[in-house]
Design brief:
346 residues, single chain, QueA-like, 6-stranded antiparallel beta barrel, 2 domains, alpha+beta
Length: 346
């Protein structure tokens, strides 16, 4: 298949710029890949669409304030987005791989100044990323917490405000490390989590730190030529045991977000789910054989994106494209702050 096969026409006004008034107040399009049908629902309908022994798997990663604004030694402005914070290597700590926007890219050895108080040295360039070493004793996490800004996606046009600090974060976020939210989880509040458990569903958690590469466009029309970005994930023995127990009782595995799905399928080998951690570059396209996930809660994704390809693999290509046309006609809200989908596997 071609990248252009996953394109669709989206009116600009359907891109949600702000979250719904409350987390669970969004709409939800129910796409039944098995029945080739779509149904308009509300997100609060979700507890009525599950059965006892189903298990929801959430990504508990936490969005860090990964965007920094500063100046170069030459006086030019610079914007930095931290992609990931690296472990200390050869005694060198406080190093991060970053995206840098400037009129001219900084050269190795040059310094960047942020908020008139924090300095970083550009160590080297690795493809389209820049390795920065932050000077001083403070950790990169502490620096970002103090002077960083919420890294809103490029299609959200306003600067981050107080609302974004709370709403561009899931209520169960726990492990620092993402530069983009696992947005399917933004619909869940404490009341919804309690309602799911009251219906007999179990809740489990994995971690996948979402990188800025999630917004990277697929530039080649041959999808097989696309190089997927790498993201770190972890799945515990307790989560594996809970999923196996749910499946043994006839429950379905419901991945909350494409990041949870990619974690579970990355950790599935020969039909069995394994605990552990590592890097995943899993690229899910039509024809992929899913081994663990039965249902998917997700948002609406960008045209021609790897996530459109993943959803098409899960629900069926024709079903997915028809559902997106339906969503546009019925004016659903798209992308990170937009409405939700509940998808049954084809």
């Amino acid at each position: 298949m071609k990248t252009s096969d996953f394109d669709y026409i989206l009116p600009q006004e359907l891109i949600a710029q702000h979250p719904a008034a409350t987390r669970s107040a969004s709409r939800m399009l129910h796409l039944d890949g098995a029945a080739d049908s779509v149904t308009d629902r509300q997100f609060i309908d979700l507890p009525n669409l599950i059965k006892p022994h189903d298990i929801f798997v959430f990504n508990d990663t936490k969005v860090i304030k990964a965007r920094l604004f500063g100046i170069k030694e030459t006086g030019g402005s610079v914007e930095v987005l931290v992609e990931r914070i690296l472990p200390a290597i050869d005694g060198i700590a406080n190093v991060a791989m970053t995206h840098v926007r400037a009129s001219k890219s900084p050269k190795p050895g040059s310094r960047l100044l942020f908020a008139n108080q924090v300095t970083a040295v550009m160590v080297r360039r690795v493809e389209d990323l820049f390795e920065l070493a932050f000077e001083g004793d403070a950790s990169v996490y502490d620096i970002l917490a103090k002077i960083g800004e919420v890294p809103l996606p490029p299609y959200i046009t306003h600067e981050a405000v107080g609302e974004d600090e709370s709403r561009y974060q899931t209520v169960y976020a726990k492990v620092d490390g993402s530069v983009a939210a696992p947005t399917a989880g933004l619909h869940f509040d404490e009341a919804m989590l309690a309602a799911l458990q009251a219906r007999g569903a179990a809740l489990a958690y994995v971690t996948l730190h979402v990188g800025a590469g999630t917004f990277r466009p697929v530039r080649d029309d041959d999808i097989a030529a696309h190089k997927m970005h790498s993201e770190w994930y972890s799945i515990s023995e307790a989560t594996v045991a809970a999923i196996n127990q749910a499946k043994a009782r006839g429950g379905r595995v419901i991945a909350v977000g494409t990041t949870s799905l990619r974690t579970l399928e990355s950790a599935s080998k020969n039909g069995a789910l394994h605990a552990g951690s590592g890097e995943t570059t899993l690229f899910v396209t039509p024809g992929f054989q899913f081994q663990t996930v039965d249902r998917l809660v997700t948002n609406f994704h960008l045209p021609k994106s790897t996530l459109m390809m993943l959803v098409s693999a899960f629900a069926g290509y024709e079903n997915t494209m028809a559902a997106y046309r339906h969503a546009v006609v019925n004016q659903y809200r798209f992308f990170s702050y937009g409405d939700a989908m509940l998808i049954e596997k084809k």
